[in-house]
From TrEMBL:
Keywords: DNA-binding, Phosphoprotein. Gene3D superfamilies: 3.40.50.2300, Winged helix-like DNA-binding domain superfamily/Winged helix DNA-binding domain. It comes from Methylobacterium symbioticum. PANTHER family: HTH-TYPE TRANSCRIPTIONAL REGULATOR YHJB-RELATED, NARL SUBFAMILY. GO terms for molecular function: DNA binding. This is Transcriptional activator protein ExaE. SUPFAM superfamilies: C-terminal effector domain of the bipartite response regulators, CheY-like. The lineage of its organism: Bacteria, Pseudomonadati, Pseudomonadota, Alphaproteobacteria, Hyphomicrobiales. Residues 5-120 form the Response regulatory domain.
Amino acid sequence: MAQEAILIIDDHALFRSGIVSMLSTALDRVLTRDCASLHEALAVDDVVPTVILLDIQLPGTSGLEGMSLLQRRWPAARIVVVSALDLPDTVSAALAQGASAFLSKTDRPDRMMAVLREMLDRLPVAPPVGAVACPSLTPRQAEVLILVGRGLSNKMIGRNLGLSEHTVRGHVQGLLSVLGVTRRAEAVFKAQQLGLIR
C-alpha cells in the first residue's frame, strides 16, 4: 500500500512552510510536498497525494479553474480548498467544483488538523468504470488550455503565464494535436467533454 501523502499548493512560501512544519510534527507518517503553483504541482511525479490542500488565488491558473486538472491527474485524491476568500459564494463554488472540504485561512490549526485527519481516514474512491481516457497533457499545456477555454488570445495567454506569443502558439498547436482537432473552438469543446475544463 502506497504511503499517504499531502500535496500543498499555495503561492505564499511562509504559509506553505508553516503547514509543512505543522504536518511533519502532527502526522509524521504522512509525506508532504509543497508547490507554489498549479503548473508546479501537476509536474509532481514522486508521490500520489491522498489529500491536496489547494489555495484558490494562485498565479497563472487559479485553484478553482485548475481543480478539474488535479482531479484528472489524481482521481482518488480529496481536495481541501484553503483560502482567505471565505465568502459563502466562494465556498459554494469550491464545493460545487468537487472540493471535499473548505478551510478558511483564519481557521485555527486544530480545525485544519481535524479536517485533514478525516480526509486521510476516508476509504479511497475507485475511478468510475468506463471512464473516458484522458489525453496526456503537459502541465504547461494544461494551463494554456484553461486560458484558451476562457477565450484569451495567444498574446493575452502569454501575459498571464509570462511566455512569449511564439511559445504560446507552440503550446496551442501541441494541444490541438493531442486532442486530435484543428481549431481552438474544437479543442475547447472536446476538453469540456473530457472534463479537462469547465
